[in-house]
Automatic annotation (TrEMBL):
CSN8/PSMD8/EIF3K domain ranges (all copies): 109-275
Sorted UniProt keywords: Proteasome
GO biological process: proteasome-mediated ubiquitin-dependent protein catabolic process
Database matches in Pfam families: CSN8_PSD8_EIF3K (PF10075)
UniProt-listed InterPro entries: 26S_Psome_Rpn12, CSN8_PSD8_EIF3K
Gene source species: Parathielavia hyrcaniae
Keyword Isomerase set for record: no
GO cellular component entries: cytosol; nucleus; proteasome regulatory particle, lid subcomplex
Domain of life: Eukaryota
UniProt name for this protein: CSN8/PSMD8/EIF3K domain-containing protein
Region (Disordered): 145-166
Keyword Chaperone belongs to the record: no
The organism's taxonomic lineage, starting at the top: Eukaryota, Fungi, Dikarya, Ascomycota, Pezizomycotina
Length: 304
């Protein structure tokens, strides 16, 4: 029986999250064929001649959610984005039927991961569009998706109509949704020390969110390096190691060369530039960023 086989497949996927991606993809393909047999591959519209039973729609939603999580673990952002697009109509229907409740599913986790993906890709416009939709959902405001909206900017069904239902989404208070929101705010503030702390293994909401730590680490190093260049003519090699959270001075030298910095007598010299009035203000901000980050790095060294 197709329904029983699908249930068994989903149970296997949930209890074996560390399985290799090829095996998981094969199981997901089989699950989609079963959904097709059950006429549950996509949600039926209210005006359809026959509607799909809610329990089959829940199985379909779980299938796509497992596919999305597997894609993130495999570091396959394109596949993840496709699953987000497939999940959207299911979440919109769930929104209309339950007033936004995500009980029994992974909606907030998937949406939080999508926000984090947008953040690591530098898609800040799409990131803030998602936040606006989530905020509208939390406030119980009726909104409509923008014309031509694609998967990027439409994840999580945030733009679904609530029809005045009682809001049930605490955006910043949610462990999955709040995490990327806080990271984005700290990144914009230049509070890289707080981002470093949040990316520590014990601070991330779950395993899948940790996948993005390496990407964010690279981005933050680049931002700190740029701030260092604006703030100071040079820095000691040892301070730069702490500042960039690198494991050794050899790693610092390698990073310095990639940026065109000069390493001499235990000191790193940054390329000099002619400053304007606006750049002088940026210099003050950059110095504050560096001081905050260095302070956090020294605290870590003291603890160790």
């Amino acid at each position: 029986m197709a329904e029983r086989e699908l249930t068994d497949l989903l149970r296997h996927l949930k209890t074996n999250p560390s399985a290799d991606y090829a095996s998981t993809s094969a199981l997901l393909s089989r699950a989609k064929l079963l959904l097709l047999q059950l006429n549950a591959l996509t949600p039926s519209t209210p005006s359809a001649a026959s509607t799909t039973p809610p329990h089959l729609l829940a199985l379909a939603r779980e299938t796509y959610e497992q596919g999305a999580l597997a894609s993130i673990r495999a570091k396959n952002p394109d596949a993840f984005t496709r699953y987000v697009a497939q999940l959207r109509p299911f979440y919109e229907q769930q929104q209309q039927q339950t007033g936004g409740s995500s009980e029994g599913g992974e909606r907030n986790k998937i949406t939080g991961l999508y926000l984090l993906l947008l953040l690591t890709q530098g898609l800040y416009g799409e990131f803030h569009s998602e936040l606006e939709a989530l905020a509208a959902t939390a406030a119980g405001i009726t909104t409509a998706p923008p014309a031509g909206a694609s998967a990027r900017g439409s994840a999580g069904g945030g733009a679904a109509t609530l029809g005045g239902r009682r809001p049930s989404v605490d955006v910043e208070g949610d462990r999955y949704l709040g995490y990327p929101i806080r990271l984005e705010r700290w990144l914009m503030e230049g509070s890289y020390d707080r981002v470093w702390k949040a990316m520590k293994k014990g601070e991330v909401p779950c395993e899948e969110f940790g996948v993005f730590s390496e990407i964010l680490t690279s981005q933050i190093r680049s931002e700190i390096a740029s701030s260092s260049e604006r703030a100071y003519p040079s820095l000691p090699l040892s301070s730069t190691k702490s500042l960039l959270f690198l494991e050794s001075e050899g790693a610092v030298v390698e990073f310095a060369r990639s940026r065109g910095w000069i390493v001499k007598d235990g000191q790193i010299y940054f390329p000099s530039t002619q400053e304007t009035g606006e750049e002088e203000q940026e210099k003050d901000f950059s110095q504050m960023v560096i001081e905050n980050t260095l302070g956090y790095a020294r605290q870590l060294e003291t603890i160790v």
